[in-house]
Write a structure and sequence with these properties.
Chain A has 215 residues and is mostly helical. The first copy, chain A, has 9 helices and no strands. Chain A binds a DNA duplex (30 and 30 nucleotides) through helix 3.
Chain lengths: 215, 215
DNA sequence: GCCGTTATTGATCAACTGGCCAATAACGTG
DNA sequence: CACGTTATTGGCCAGTTGATCAATAACGGC
Protein backbone atom coordinates (compact mmCIF):
# COMPACT_ATOMS: atom_id res chain seq x y z
CA UNK A 1 0.00 0.00 0.00
CA UNK A 2 2.49 2.53 1.17
CA UNK A 3 5.16 1.66 -1.39
CA UNK A 4 3.01 1.55 -4.49
CA UNK A 5 4.54 4.89 -5.39
CA UNK A 6 8.15 4.96 -4.28
CA UNK A 7 8.92 8.53 -5.14
CA UNK A 8 12.65 8.24 -4.99
CA UNK A 9 15.09 5.37 -5.32
CA UNK A 10 17.24 4.93 -2.21
CA UNK A 11 20.69 6.37 -2.54
CA UNK A 12 23.25 3.60 -3.02
CA UNK A 13 26.98 3.27 -3.34
CA UNK A 14 28.03 3.95 -6.94
CA UNK A 15 29.50 0.48 -7.34
CA UNK A 16 26.30 -1.16 -6.22
CA UNK A 17 24.03 1.00 -8.36
CA UNK A 18 26.32 0.52 -11.31
CA UNK A 19 26.09 -3.24 -10.90
CA UNK A 20 22.30 -3.02 -10.73
CA UNK A 21 22.16 -1.00 -13.92
CA UNK A 22 24.50 -3.43 -15.64
CA UNK A 23 22.32 -6.35 -14.65
CA UNK A 24 19.15 -4.58 -15.77
CA UNK A 25 20.76 -3.75 -19.10
CA UNK A 26 21.94 -7.32 -19.63
CA UNK A 27 18.50 -8.75 -18.98
CA UNK A 28 16.94 -6.30 -21.43
CA UNK A 29 19.48 -7.24 -24.09
CA UNK A 30 18.85 -10.95 -23.62
CA UNK A 31 15.08 -10.65 -23.60
CA UNK A 32 14.43 -7.91 -26.14
CA UNK A 33 17.68 -7.40 -27.99
CA UNK A 34 20.47 -4.85 -27.96
CA UNK A 35 18.34 -2.27 -29.72
CA UNK A 36 15.95 -2.26 -26.77
CA UNK A 37 18.70 -0.73 -24.66
CA UNK A 38 17.47 2.83 -24.21
CA UNK A 39 17.88 5.22 -21.33
CA UNK A 40 14.20 4.95 -20.45
CA UNK A 41 14.00 1.18 -20.80
CA UNK A 42 16.98 0.60 -18.57
CA UNK A 43 15.75 3.17 -16.05
CA UNK A 44 12.30 1.60 -15.86
CA UNK A 45 13.67 -1.89 -15.29
CA UNK A 46 16.14 -0.69 -12.68
CA UNK A 47 13.45 1.41 -10.98
CA UNK A 48 15.28 4.73 -11.29
CA UNK A 49 14.88 7.93 -13.26
CA UNK A 50 16.16 8.03 -16.85
CA UNK A 51 18.61 10.74 -15.95
CA UNK A 52 20.38 8.44 -13.54
CA UNK A 53 21.24 5.98 -16.27
CA UNK A 54 22.74 8.82 -18.26
CA UNK A 55 24.62 9.86 -15.14
CA UNK A 56 26.33 6.48 -14.97
CA UNK A 57 26.64 6.04 -18.72
CA UNK A 58 27.08 9.32 -20.54
CA UNK A 59 27.00 7.49 -23.88
CA UNK A 60 24.42 4.90 -24.81
CA UNK A 61 26.71 3.60 -27.53
CA UNK A 62 29.24 2.58 -24.92
CA UNK A 63 26.54 1.11 -22.70
CA UNK A 64 25.42 -1.12 -25.56
CA UNK A 65 28.97 -2.16 -26.38
CA UNK A 66 29.78 -2.86 -22.74
CA UNK A 67 26.63 -4.92 -22.27
CA UNK A 68 27.40 -6.94 -25.37
CA UNK A 69 30.92 -7.67 -24.13
CA UNK A 70 29.66 -8.59 -20.71
CA UNK A 71 27.14 -11.09 -22.05
CA UNK A 72 29.29 -12.85 -24.59
CA UNK A 73 32.48 -12.83 -22.53
CA UNK A 74 30.64 -14.64 -19.77
CA UNK A 75 29.58 -17.31 -22.22
CA UNK A 76 33.06 -17.67 -23.68
CA UNK A 77 34.60 -18.12 -20.27
CA UNK A 78 31.93 -20.56 -19.21
CA UNK A 79 32.38 -22.78 -22.24
CA UNK A 80 36.15 -22.51 -22.12
CA UNK A 81 36.13 -23.68 -18.52
CA UNK A 82 33.79 -26.51 -19.38
CA UNK A 83 35.98 -27.70 -22.21
CA UNK A 84 39.17 -27.34 -20.19
CA UNK A 85 37.87 -30.01 -17.84
CA UNK A 86 37.76 -32.70 -20.50
CA UNK A 87 40.41 -35.24 -21.35
CA UNK A 88 41.37 -35.64 -24.99
CA UNK A 89 41.18 -32.93 -27.62
CA UNK A 90 38.50 -34.95 -29.40
CA UNK A 91 36.34 -34.99 -26.29
CA UNK A 92 36.96 -31.29 -25.77
CA UNK A 93 36.08 -30.29 -29.31
CA UNK A 94 33.07 -32.57 -29.34
CA UNK A 95 31.79 -31.10 -26.11
CA UNK A 96 32.38 -27.60 -27.39
CA UNK A 97 30.34 -28.22 -30.52
CA UNK A 98 27.58 -29.87 -28.56
CA UNK A 99 27.44 -27.02 -26.06
CA UNK A 100 27.40 -24.30 -28.68
CA UNK A 101 24.55 -25.89 -30.59
CA UNK A 102 22.46 -26.06 -27.45
CA UNK A 103 19.11 -24.35 -27.96
CA UNK A 104 19.28 -22.77 -24.56
CA UNK A 105 21.91 -20.37 -25.85
CA UNK A 106 19.71 -18.89 -28.53
CA UNK A 107 19.28 -15.66 -26.60
CA UNK A 108 23.03 -15.11 -26.70
CA UNK A 109 23.05 -15.94 -30.40
CA UNK A 110 20.46 -13.24 -30.96
CA UNK A 111 22.75 -10.78 -29.23
CA UNK A 112 25.62 -11.81 -31.50
CA UNK A 113 23.60 -11.42 -34.68
CA UNK A 114 22.25 -8.04 -33.65
CA UNK A 115 25.74 -6.88 -32.75
CA UNK A 116 26.96 -7.73 -36.24
CA UNK A 117 24.33 -5.41 -37.66
CA UNK A 118 24.50 -2.62 -35.11
CA UNK A 119 28.27 -2.59 -35.32
CA UNK A 120 27.86 -1.03 -38.71
CA UNK A 121 26.67 2.20 -37.12
CA UNK A 122 28.24 1.91 -33.68
CA UNK A 123 32.01 1.78 -33.98
CA UNK A 124 32.45 1.18 -30.26
CA UNK A 125 30.28 -1.89 -30.54
CA UNK A 126 32.06 -3.03 -33.69
CA UNK A 127 35.35 -2.93 -31.83
CA UNK A 128 33.89 -5.00 -29.00
CA UNK A 129 32.55 -7.51 -31.49
CA UNK A 130 35.95 -8.01 -33.05
CA UNK A 131 37.48 -8.38 -29.61
CA UNK A 132 35.00 -11.03 -28.54
CA UNK A 133 35.29 -12.90 -31.81
CA UNK A 134 39.03 -13.04 -31.26
CA UNK A 135 38.46 -14.48 -27.80
CA UNK A 136 36.22 -17.20 -29.19
CA UNK A 137 38.62 -18.02 -31.97
CA UNK A 138 41.46 -18.34 -29.45
CA UNK A 139 39.54 -20.93 -27.45
CA UNK A 140 38.91 -23.06 -30.52
CA UNK A 141 42.39 -22.50 -31.89
CA UNK A 142 44.03 -23.74 -28.70
CA UNK A 143 41.85 -26.81 -28.76
CA UNK A 144 42.76 -27.58 -32.36
CA UNK A 145 46.42 -26.93 -31.69
CA UNK A 146 46.33 -29.30 -28.74
CA UNK A 147 44.88 -31.97 -30.97
CA UNK A 148 47.56 -31.42 -33.56
CA UNK A 149 50.23 -31.61 -30.87
CA UNK A 150 48.84 -34.88 -29.58
CA UNK A 151 48.62 -36.30 -33.07
CA UNK A 152 44.86 -36.65 -32.99
CA UNK A 153 44.32 -33.87 -35.54
CA UNK A 154 46.32 -33.05 -38.62
CA UNK A 155 45.22 -29.53 -39.49
CA UNK A 156 48.20 -27.62 -40.87
CA UNK A 157 46.82 -24.25 -39.84
CA UNK A 158 45.00 -24.20 -36.50
CA UNK A 159 44.49 -20.45 -36.74
CA UNK A 160 42.58 -20.55 -39.97
CA UNK A 161 40.69 -23.73 -39.12
CA UNK A 162 39.49 -22.19 -35.86
CA UNK A 163 38.01 -19.21 -37.71
CA UNK A 164 36.30 -21.61 -40.04
CA UNK A 165 34.74 -23.64 -37.24
CA UNK A 166 33.62 -20.48 -35.47
CA UNK A 167 31.96 -19.21 -38.62
CA UNK A 168 30.13 -22.47 -39.17
CA UNK A 169 28.85 -22.59 -35.61
CA UNK A 170 27.68 -18.99 -35.75
CA UNK A 171 25.88 -19.58 -39.02
CA UNK A 172 24.09 -22.68 -37.79
CA UNK A 173 23.04 -20.89 -34.64
CA UNK A 174 21.81 -17.84 -36.52
CA UNK A 175 19.83 -20.15 -38.72
CA UNK A 176 18.29 -21.81 -35.68
CA UNK A 177 17.23 -18.36 -34.55
CA UNK A 178 14.90 -18.04 -37.51
CA UNK A 179 14.15 -21.67 -38.34
CA UNK A 180 14.38 -23.08 -34.88
CA UNK A 181 12.92 -26.49 -35.71
CA UNK A 182 14.20 -26.90 -39.24
CA UNK A 183 17.23 -29.11 -39.28
CA UNK A 184 17.63 -32.53 -37.84
CA UNK A 185 21.01 -33.94 -36.84
CA UNK A 186 22.72 -30.57 -36.71
CA UNK A 187 25.32 -31.88 -34.37
CA UNK A 188 26.08 -35.00 -36.38
CA UNK A 189 26.56 -33.09 -39.62
CA UNK A 190 28.67 -30.43 -37.95
CA UNK A 191 30.84 -33.03 -36.28
CA UNK A 192 31.53 -34.68 -39.64
CA UNK A 193 32.38 -31.33 -41.20
CA UNK A 194 34.72 -30.40 -38.39
CA UNK A 195 36.41 -33.79 -38.48
CA UNK A 196 37.18 -33.13 -42.11
CA UNK A 197 38.76 -29.74 -41.64
CA UNK A 198 40.77 -30.54 -38.51
CA UNK A 199 41.87 -33.85 -39.92
CA UNK A 200 40.40 -36.01 -37.16
CA UNK A 201 39.43 -39.63 -37.55
CA UNK A 202 35.87 -40.19 -38.81
CA UNK A 203 33.29 -40.30 -36.01
CA UNK A 204 35.90 -39.28 -33.47
CA UNK A 205 33.98 -36.08 -32.73
CA UNK A 206 30.55 -37.59 -32.40
CA UNK A 207 29.01 -37.28 -28.95
CA UNK A 208 30.06 -39.85 -26.42
CA UNK A 209 28.23 -43.13 -26.81
CA UNK A 210 24.92 -43.44 -25.06
CA UNK A 211 25.33 -43.67 -21.26
CA UNK A 212 25.62 -47.22 -20.05
CA UNK A 213 26.76 -48.66 -23.34
CA UNK A 214 30.40 -48.84 -22.29
CA UNK A 215 30.06 -49.74 -18.65
CA UNK B 1 20.52 27.19 -62.97
CA UNK B 2 16.84 26.78 -63.65
CA UNK B 3 16.48 23.31 -62.16
CA UNK B 4 18.43 23.75 -58.94
CA UNK B 5 15.09 23.87 -57.17
CA UNK B 6 12.71 21.51 -58.88
CA UNK B 7 9.60 22.37 -56.93
CA UNK B 8 7.58 19.40 -58.00
CA UNK B 9 8.44 15.96 -59.31
CA UNK B 10 6.93 15.30 -62.72
CA UNK B 11 3.83 13.21 -62.63
CA UNK B 12 4.55 9.67 -63.80
CA UNK B 13 2.65 6.50 -64.45
CA UNK B 14 2.15 4.62 -61.19
CA UNK B 15 4.09 1.60 -62.44
CA UNK B 16 7.06 3.73 -63.40
CA UNK B 17 7.08 5.70 -60.17
CA UNK B 18 6.67 2.52 -58.19
CA UNK B 19 9.68 1.01 -59.93
CA UNK B 20 11.73 4.12 -59.17
CA UNK B 21 10.82 3.96 -55.51
CA UNK B 22 11.67 0.27 -55.39
CA UNK B 23 15.06 0.92 -56.93
CA UNK B 24 15.76 3.81 -54.57
CA UNK B 25 14.80 1.66 -51.61
CA UNK B 26 17.00 -1.23 -52.73
CA UNK B 27 20.02 1.00 -53.14
CA UNK B 28 19.50 2.46 -49.66
CA UNK B 29 19.24 -1.04 -48.18
CA UNK B 30 22.43 -2.19 -49.90
CA UNK B 31 24.42 0.91 -48.99
CA UNK B 32 23.15 1.77 -45.52
CA UNK B 33 21.17 -1.24 -44.37
CA UNK B 34 17.52 -2.14 -44.02
CA UNK B 35 17.10 0.09 -40.98
CA UNK B 36 17.92 3.11 -43.12
CA UNK B 37 14.70 2.55 -45.01
CA UNK B 38 12.54 5.43 -43.80
CA UNK B 39 9.88 7.43 -45.58
CA UNK B 40 12.10 10.49 -45.67
CA UNK B 41 15.25 8.66 -46.75
CA UNK B 42 13.53 6.94 -49.63
CA UNK B 43 11.77 10.13 -50.64
CA UNK B 44 15.00 12.11 -50.65
CA UNK B 45 16.81 9.56 -52.79
CA UNK B 46 13.93 9.27 -55.21
CA UNK B 47 13.55 13.04 -55.38
CA UNK B 48 9.96 13.14 -54.23
CA UNK B 49 8.03 14.25 -51.16
CA UNK B 50 7.88 11.89 -48.16
CA UNK B 51 4.14 11.68 -48.45
CA UNK B 52 4.42 10.14 -51.90
CA UNK B 53 6.34 7.19 -50.55
CA UNK B 54 3.60 6.64 -48.00
CA UNK B 55 1.09 6.93 -50.82
CA UNK B 56 2.70 4.01 -52.64
CA UNK B 57 3.57 2.05 -49.49
CA UNK B 58 1.08 2.59 -46.69
CA UNK B 59 3.19 0.43 -44.38
CA UNK B 60 6.93 0.82 -43.97
CA UNK B 61 7.12 -2.67 -42.50
CA UNK B 62 5.95 -4.11 -45.77
CA UNK B 63 8.25 -1.87 -47.76
CA UNK B 64 11.21 -3.20 -45.80
CA UNK B 65 10.09 -6.80 -46.22
CA UNK B 66 9.47 -6.34 -49.92
CA UNK B 67 12.84 -4.73 -50.46
CA UNK B 68 14.56 -7.55 -48.61
CA UNK B 69 12.80 -10.15 -50.74
CA UNK B 70 13.61 -8.27 -53.92
CA UNK B 71 17.31 -8.08 -53.13
CA UNK B 72 17.91 -11.62 -51.98
CA UNK B 73 15.59 -13.27 -54.49
CA UNK B 74 17.56 -11.67 -57.29
CA UNK B 75 20.74 -13.14 -55.89
CA UNK B 76 19.24 -16.58 -55.45
CA UNK B 77 18.00 -16.67 -59.00
CA UNK B 78 21.28 -15.36 -60.35
CA UNK B 79 23.33 -18.00 -58.58
CA UNK B 80 20.85 -20.76 -59.37
CA UNK B 81 21.06 -19.90 -63.05
CA UNK B 82 24.84 -19.84 -62.89
CA UNK B 83 25.01 -23.24 -61.26
CA UNK B 84 22.43 -24.75 -63.60
CA UNK B 85 24.81 -24.14 -66.47
CA UNK B 86 27.51 -26.44 -65.12
CA UNK B 87 28.06 -30.09 -65.86
CA UNK B 88 28.53 -32.45 -62.97
CA UNK B 89 27.05 -32.00 -59.50
CA UNK B 90 30.56 -31.60 -58.15
CA UNK B 91 31.26 -28.73 -60.49
CA UNK B 92 27.94 -27.17 -59.65
CA UNK B 93 28.38 -27.37 -55.90
CA UNK B 94 31.95 -26.17 -56.13
CA UNK B 95 30.92 -23.19 -58.22
CA UNK B 96 28.10 -22.41 -55.82
CA UNK B 97 30.43 -22.36 -52.83
CA UNK B 98 32.95 -20.26 -54.66
CA UNK B 99 30.34 -17.78 -55.78
CA UNK B 100 28.75 -17.43 -52.36
CA UNK B 101 32.06 -16.74 -50.67
CA UNK B 102 32.81 -13.95 -53.11
CA UNK B 103 33.57 -10.73 -51.29
CA UNK B 104 31.56 -8.73 -53.78
CA UNK B 105 28.39 -10.11 -52.22
CA UNK B 106 29.06 -8.72 -48.78
CA UNK B 107 26.43 -6.03 -49.15
CA UNK B 108 23.80 -8.70 -49.65
CA UNK B 109 25.15 -10.58 -46.66
CA UNK B 110 24.70 -7.47 -44.56
CA UNK B 111 21.08 -7.34 -45.64
CA UNK B 112 20.63 -10.97 -44.61
CA UNK B 113 22.14 -10.45 -41.18
CA UNK B 114 20.11 -7.34 -40.51
CA UNK B 115 16.95 -9.13 -41.61
CA UNK B 116 17.59 -11.87 -39.06
CA UNK B 117 17.61 -9.24 -36.32
CA UNK B 118 14.85 -6.99 -37.57
CA UNK B 119 12.61 -9.99 -38.15
CA UNK B 120 12.30 -10.23 -34.43
CA UNK B 121 10.19 -7.09 -34.37
CA UNK B 122 8.79 -7.10 -37.91
CA UNK B 123 6.70 -10.21 -38.48
CA UNK B 124 6.19 -9.39 -42.15
CA UNK B 125 9.93 -9.32 -42.62
CA UNK B 126 10.38 -12.51 -40.60
CA UNK B 127 7.99 -14.27 -42.92
CA UNK B 128 9.91 -13.06 -45.95
CA UNK B 129 13.15 -14.23 -44.40
CA UNK B 130 11.82 -17.73 -43.90
CA UNK B 131 10.54 -17.76 -47.45
CA UNK B 132 13.87 -16.72 -48.93
CA UNK B 133 15.80 -19.14 -46.77
CA UNK B 134 13.57 -21.91 -48.09
CA UNK B 135 14.35 -20.82 -51.62
CA UNK B 136 18.08 -20.97 -50.98
CA UNK B 137 17.84 -24.31 -49.30
CA UNK B 138 15.89 -25.71 -52.25
CA UNK B 139 18.66 -24.71 -54.66
CA UNK B 140 21.30 -26.48 -52.61
CA UNK B 141 19.06 -29.43 -51.87
CA UNK B 142 18.42 -30.07 -55.55
CA UNK B 143 22.13 -29.92 -56.23
CA UNK B 144 22.89 -32.43 -53.49
CA UNK B 145 20.06 -34.69 -54.60
CA UNK B 146 21.38 -34.65 -58.15
CA UNK B 147 24.77 -35.70 -56.86
CA UNK B 148 23.25 -38.53 -54.89
CA UNK B 149 21.28 -39.65 -57.91
CA UNK B 150 24.39 -39.69 -60.06
CA UNK B 151 26.32 -41.57 -57.43
CA UNK B 152 28.84 -38.80 -56.86
CA UNK B 153 27.50 -38.00 -53.39
CA UNK B 154 26.26 -40.34 -50.70
CA UNK B 155 24.36 -38.07 -48.32
CA UNK B 156 21.38 -39.98 -46.97
CA UNK B 157 19.37 -36.84 -46.30
CA UNK B 158 19.76 -34.11 -48.91
CA UNK B 159 17.19 -31.94 -47.15
CA UNK B 160 19.05 -31.76 -43.89
CA UNK B 161 22.47 -31.52 -45.49
CA UNK B 162 21.35 -28.58 -47.57
CA UNK B 163 20.28 -26.67 -44.48
CA UNK B 164 23.62 -27.43 -42.94
CA UNK B 165 25.57 -26.13 -45.93
CA UNK B 166 23.43 -23.02 -46.06
CA UNK B 167 24.05 -22.33 -42.40
CA UNK B 168 27.79 -22.74 -42.79
CA UNK B 169 27.94 -20.41 -45.77
CA UNK B 170 25.86 -17.79 -44.01
CA UNK B 171 28.05 -17.94 -40.93
CA UNK B 172 31.27 -17.60 -42.87
CA UNK B 173 29.87 -14.66 -44.78
CA UNK B 174 28.60 -12.95 -41.66
CA UNK B 175 32.04 -13.41 -40.19
CA UNK B 176 33.63 -11.83 -43.24
CA UNK B 177 31.34 -8.87 -42.69
CA UNK B 178 33.12 -8.03 -39.47
CA UNK B 179 36.54 -9.60 -40.01
CA UNK B 180 36.79 -9.13 -43.70
CA UNK B 181 40.45 -10.01 -44.02
CA UNK B 182 40.74 -12.57 -41.26
CA UNK B 183 40.68 -16.05 -42.70
CA UNK B 184 42.81 -17.48 -45.40
CA UNK B 185 41.67 -20.40 -47.52
CA UNK B 186 38.03 -20.01 -46.67
CA UNK B 187 37.02 -21.79 -49.81
CA UNK B 188 39.41 -24.71 -49.35
CA UNK B 189 38.29 -25.37 -45.80
CA UNK B 190 34.62 -25.04 -46.68
CA UNK B 191 35.02 -27.38 -49.65
CA UNK B 192 36.54 -30.03 -47.39
CA UNK B 193 33.76 -29.65 -44.87
CA UNK B 194 31.07 -29.91 -47.51
CA UNK B 195 32.73 -32.94 -49.09
CA UNK B 196 32.47 -34.63 -45.72
CA UNK B 197 28.80 -33.99 -45.16
CA UNK B 198 27.61 -34.73 -48.69
CA UNK B 199 29.81 -37.78 -48.94
CA UNK B 200 31.80 -36.62 -51.94
CA UNK B 201 35.28 -37.82 -52.79
CA UNK B 202 38.08 -35.84 -51.15
CA UNK B 203 39.14 -32.80 -53.18
CA UNK B 204 36.29 -33.32 -55.61
CA UNK B 205 34.79 -29.97 -54.63
CA UNK B 206 37.95 -27.94 -54.81
CA UNK B 207 37.94 -25.25 -57.48
CA UNK B 208 38.77 -26.48 -60.92
CA UNK B 209 42.46 -27.12 -61.31
CA UNK B 210 44.56 -24.21 -62.47
CA UNK B 211 43.88 -23.49 -66.15
CA UNK B 212 46.19 -25.46 -68.36
CA UNK B 213 47.23 -28.01 -65.79
CA UNK B 214 45.08 -30.79 -67.16
CA UNK B 215 45.12 -30.05 -70.83
C1' DG C 1 25.63 18.59 14.27
C1' DC C 2 27.30 21.18 10.03
C1' DC C 3 28.38 21.16 5.41
C1' DG C 4 30.46 19.86 1.07
C1' DT C 5 29.93 16.19 -2.12
C1' DT C 6 27.13 13.75 -5.14
C1' DA C 7 23.37 10.38 -6.07
C1' DT C 8 18.85 11.14 -7.89
C1' DT C 9 15.06 13.41 -10.03
C1' DG C 10 12.08 15.15 -13.69
C1' DA C 11 11.59 18.30 -16.99
C1' DT C 12 13.21 20.04 -21.35
C1' DC C 13 15.40 20.07 -25.93
C1' DA C 14 16.27 18.88 -30.74
C1' DA C 15 16.11 15.26 -33.87
C1' DC C 16 14.09 11.52 -35.65
C1' DT C 17 10.27 8.15 -36.72
C1' DG C 18 5.45 6.51 -39.24
C1' DG C 19 1.14 7.94 -40.43
C1' DC C 20 -2.42 11.22 -41.85
C1' DC C 21 -4.67 14.68 -44.70
C1' DA C 22 -6.27 18.85 -47.07
C1' DA C 23 -4.60 21.39 -50.96
C1' DT C 24 -2.63 21.44 -55.50
C1' DA C 25 -1.86 20.26 -60.19
C1' DA C 26 -1.34 17.26 -64.05
C1' DC C 27 -3.25 13.71 -66.60
C1' DG C 28 -6.72 11.26 -69.61
C1' DT C 29 -11.47 10.58 -70.79
C1' DG C 30 -15.64 12.48 -72.20
C1' DC D 1 -12.42 22.05 -74.29
C1' DA D 2 -14.31 20.76 -69.58
C1' DC D 3 -14.02 17.75 -65.78
C1' DG D 4 -13.24 13.87 -62.82
C1' DT D 5 -9.43 11.17 -61.31
C1' DT D 6 -5.30 10.88 -58.90
C1' DA D 7 -0.25 11.73 -58.52
C1' DT D 8 2.13 14.87 -55.66
C1' DT D 9 2.99 18.09 -52.04
C1' DG D 10 4.14 19.76 -47.42
C1' DG D 11 2.72 20.43 -43.10
C1' DC D 12 0.97 18.35 -38.97
C1' DC D 13 0.58 14.98 -35.20
C1' DA D 14 1.99 11.84 -31.53
C1' DG D 15 5.50 8.98 -30.51
C1' DT D 16 10.33 7.73 -29.78
C1' DT D 17 15.22 8.58 -29.08
C1' DG D 18 19.89 10.57 -26.52
C1' DA D 19 21.44 14.24 -24.07
C1' DT D 20 21.53 18.10 -20.80
C1' DC D 21 20.68 20.49 -16.54
C1' DA D 22 18.89 22.92 -12.48
C1' DA D 23 16.84 21.40 -8.30
C1' DT D 24 16.61 18.19 -4.53
C1' DA D 25 18.11 15.21 -0.91
C1' DA D 26 20.98 11.83 1.27
C1' DC D 27 25.43 10.48 2.60
C1' DG D 28 30.05 10.93 5.02
C1' DG D 29 34.00 13.57 6.73
C1' DC D 30 35.00 17.19 9.88
Amino acid sequence: MSNTKPRRAPRKAPAERSAELAQATRSIALEQGLSAITLRNVARRAGVAPGLVAHYHPSVEMLVAGTFSSIVAAETEEVAALVAGTGTPQQGLSLLLETLLDDRRLDVTAVWVEAWSLGRRNETLASSVREQMDAWQAVIRDLVAAGVASGDFSAPDAESVAWQILGMVDGLNAQALVRWNGVADRHTHLARAVEAIVGAAPSSLLPAAAPGSDR
